[in-house]
Specification:
The chain has about 400 residues and is of the alpha/beta class. It has 2 domains: about 140 residues, Aspartate Aminotransferase, domain 1 (Alpha-Beta Complex); about 220 residues, Type I PLP-dependent aspartate aminotransferase-like (Major domain) (Aspartate Aminotransferase, domain 2). It contains 13 helices and 12 strands. The strands form 3 sheets. Strands 2-8-7-6-5-3-4 form a 7-stranded mixed β-sheet, with helices on both faces. A 3-stranded antiparallel β-sheet has the order 9-12-11. Strands 1-10 form a two-stranded parallel sheet. Bound molecules: pyridoxal-5'-phosphate. Pyridoxal-5'-phosphate binds next to helix 5. The site of pyridoxal-5'-phosphate (PLP) has 13 residues, from helix 5.
Length: about 400
């Protein structure tokens, strides 16, 4: 018996590997500070938890339609209308098991063998693996601090070929927490649209962005490109990682294909999670989420100040999400060894740049500041001890 070539080729998501190692160390009795995982510590807003208790009243929780509960899809459409003034037919919204399944579904529906997909290097690792699972080729464009580690139109133009089928952008991005300027996003989308390529824009951190300098709320790509594919999730802004619920907004021609694929791949996303998630759009829940967003900004300040004190430069300060991507070249260690040693010696788990693409693989490390202020302070103090060459006693 053999494994598929796809399975042989797929690389692990190293952030998850480091987090698993951290859990094993905790089980073995060590106190570990976990800053390797992109998971807010808040949990779901109270109204959503309450709604889940109500849903668990013994009712038969049967399948929903493959693309999700019509009521939840209507709620999401109403949310976009209120937040962004865009009108979306709920039939174009696919409810999925997290943004992960939305990405899987969308790439399954759009990518054939030999197709090329342009994305930034560094960027979210699973995108690369998913594209390649479908026989596509990732064209990872090296980015620098000058473009805030995001694509710009010149870079996209330079990477374009007759096989380009899609451009993928996450804004704010994982691992850098940086946002692409909205005008640049519009220009890239217009270029891709004119050449008949899909625009797949992952907005999972959109509502965790800072307001723009002129006080504007973060804008969805749909405000400039109503046929872009949008990926989003309940995981981050709503603090519902383990609920496994997300969504994709699809251009009309993709809906039938996504529905057929969803029927075959998943039947539907979790019915109880879908029912309870409706409460996430209540004004009280959104107010809670906004408060948490502000808390994350405070945590960011702690982390940026702490890393600056330690002489670990954050190449581009984040303006959203909850990641600081810092350069460890000055320590004399490459990023992989830095993460391994900080975990083993100091008991802090971080994510090496290797996850995110070759450009910053050896030099950069991602720290997630979604953990509590206490954990962040403890983590920074342990890294400080580590850098001073001290083994942390008794930990
Ligand atoms: C950019 C990006 N997209 C998608 C995901 C997947 O999120 P989920 O499947 O929990 O919604 C993540 C998770 O960290 C992410 O950072």
């Amino acid at each position: 018996m053999k494994l598929s070539e796809r399975a042989e080729r797929v690389e692990p998501f190293y952030a998850m590997d480091f987090t698993r190692r951290a859990s094993e160390m905790v089980e073995a009795g060590r106190r570990i500070v976990t800053l390797s995982v992109g998971e807010p510590d808040f949990g779901a807003p109270p109204l959503v938890r309450e709604a889940m208790r109500d849903v668990m009243d013994g009712r038969p929780l049967t399948y929903t339609p493959a693309l999700g509960s019509p009521a939840l899809r209507a709620d999401i459409a109403a949310f976009y209308r209120e937040r962004h003034g865009v009108s979306i037919d709920p039939a174009r919204i696919a409810i999925t098991s997290g943004a992960s399944s939305a990405l899987l579904l969308v790439l399954a529906a759009t990518i054939d063998a030999g197709d090329e997909v342009i994305m930034a290097d560094p960027s979210y690792p699973c995108n690369r693996q998913l594209v390649e699972s479908f026989g596509g080729r990732t064209v990872a464009v090296p980015t620098t601090a000058a473009s805030r580690f995001q694509l710009d139109d010149a870079a996209v133009a330079g990477a374009w070929s007759s096989r380009t089928a899609a451009v993928m952008i996450a804004t704010p991005s994982n691992p850098t927490g940086t946002t692409i300027p909205f005008g640049e996003l519009g220009t890239i989308c217009a270029r891709a649209r004119d050449r008949g390529a899909w625009r797949i824009v992952d907005e999972i951190y959109l509502y965790l962005s800072d307001p723009t300098a002129d006080g504007m709320a973060p804008r969805t790509v749909l405000e400039v490109d109503d046929e872009a594919i949008v990926i989003n999730s309940f995981s981050k802004y709503f603090g519902m990682t383990g609920w496994r619920l997300g969504w994709a907004i699809l251009p009309e021609p993709l809906v039938g294909a996504a529905e057929r694929l969803a029927m075959n791949y998943f039947l539907c996303a979790s019915a109880p999670a879908q029912l309870a998630a409706r409460a996430a759009f209540e004004p009280a829940s959104l107010a809670v989420c906004e408060e948490r967003r502000r808390e994350l900004v405070e945590r960011r300040e702690i982390v940026l100040a702490g890393l600056a004190r330690l002489g670990l430069p954050v190449t581009v300060p984040p303006d959203g999400a909850f990641y600081a991507y810092f350069d460890v070249s000055g320590t004399g260690l490459d990023s992989w060894s830095f993460c391994q040693r900080v975990l083993e010696v100091a008991g802090v788990s971080l994510t090496p740049g290797r996850d995110f693409g070759p450009t910053t693989s050896a030099t950069h490390v991602r720290l997630s500041y979604a953990s509590s202020r206490e954990e962040l302070s403890e983590g920074l103090s342990r890294i400080s001890d580590f850098l001073s060459g001290e083994r942390v006693p008794g930990r």
